[in-house]
Amino acid sequence: MRKSTSRWLSGLVVAGAVMASIATAAAEPIKIAIANFGEHPQLNASIAGFKKALAENGFVEGKDVVYTESNTSFDASLVPQMIAKLQSDHPKLMYTITTPVSQIAKKALAGSGIPIVFSAVTDPVAAKLVPSWDAGDEGITGASDLQDIAAILTFTKKLLPNAKRIGVPYNPGEANDAALIEKVKAAAPAAGFELVPVGVDNVNDIQQRIASLAGKADVIYTPASNLLQPAITAVAAAARQAQIPIVNSDDAAVRSGVVPASFAVNYEQVGENAGRIAAKILKGGDPKTIAPSRPAYEDHAPLINKTVLKAFGADVPASLADCNCFTK
């Protein structure tokens, strides 16, 4: 065989190997990092919804995408370490859940080329994740869990028509909570309520702070707070002792018999909203041009536990007798 022919054949072999290598690399699933704050039914539901929406948009888990999930058990001091570890795996995109995690991730990943899609963030504008509700920021956008405050107050008034003062515990140090208080303050008068806010910045203070609402509030609304929801059993125990019914932002606590009622956003739907945004980005979209989403009214639903409501000193009014929103 001539040397030129041999070189030609060798070249074909090398080229074939290169093409095979490229094909193999192209077939490798896209890496997506999931940075969660902690294990919680709402936050876990947002992950399930995220994966579901991506699968529906052509990114099937195990085939087209692989996920690396991590959480800090709600320890904010560990978030930077979690983000750094997830970043070291060079994901194509990072999904961040809750405001504290998203804020830290935005700073940590700035200029890295790894886009961020957030969820379970009540007000991404107040949290300075995006400049407005009309656009994302450089490398980041996502899905809000912003509840329809007017709808919540309307339901609360139907449930407790004689209630005039609504107590709202919140964590002053969390942007989500502080933003929500301002929204309740603006909407309360039209719904016939006087707002009674109470700051809680430590789980050890819950019993004392909720007890302080005795004689000052006729009903309590507990927001989707990263401090309060994991400790909702303690909140409910103190409220029950004070005989102040609770309307919660999470229906899981109603189903488990902890609180009497909820008017809640479906967090799987929040995750789906985030997943659809992630799919756009993975297909070449620029996060900066994608506006953050927020739940529609129909993404909310009321739920009432009659037995627990009675234990908190109230009964279901006739106006809600046929609401088809009861659990045992």
Give a written overview of the molecule.
It is a single chain. The protein has 328 residues and is an alpha/beta fold. It is 40% helix and 19% strand. The protein contains 11 helices and 12 strands. The chain has helices spanning 3-27, 41-56, 79-87, 99-108, 149-159, 175-191, 206-211, 232-241, 252-255, 267-282, 306-311; strands at 30-36, 65-71, 93-97, 116-121, 140-144, 165-170, 194-199, 219-222, 246-248, 261-265, 300-305, 326-327. Strands 7-6-8-9-10-11-12 form a 7-stranded mixed β-sheet, sandwiched between helices. A 5-stranded parallel β-sheet has the order 2-1-3-4-5, sandwiched between helices. Helix 2 (41-56) packs parallel to helix 10 (267-282). It is elongated.
Could you give the topology of this structure?
Elements: H1 3-27, E1 30-36, H2 41-56, E2 65-71, H3 79-87, E3 93-97, H4 99-108, E4 116-121, E5 140-144, H5 149-159, E6 165-170, H6 175-191, E7 194-199, H7 206-211, E8 219-222, H8 232-241, E9 246-248, H9 252-255, E10 261-265, H10 267-282, E11 300-305, H11 306-311, E12 326-327
Parallel strand pairs: 1-2, 1-3, 3-4, 4-5, 6-7, 6-8, 8-9, 9-10, 11-12
Antiparallel strand pairs: 10-11
Helix pairs in contact: 2-10, 3-4, 5-6
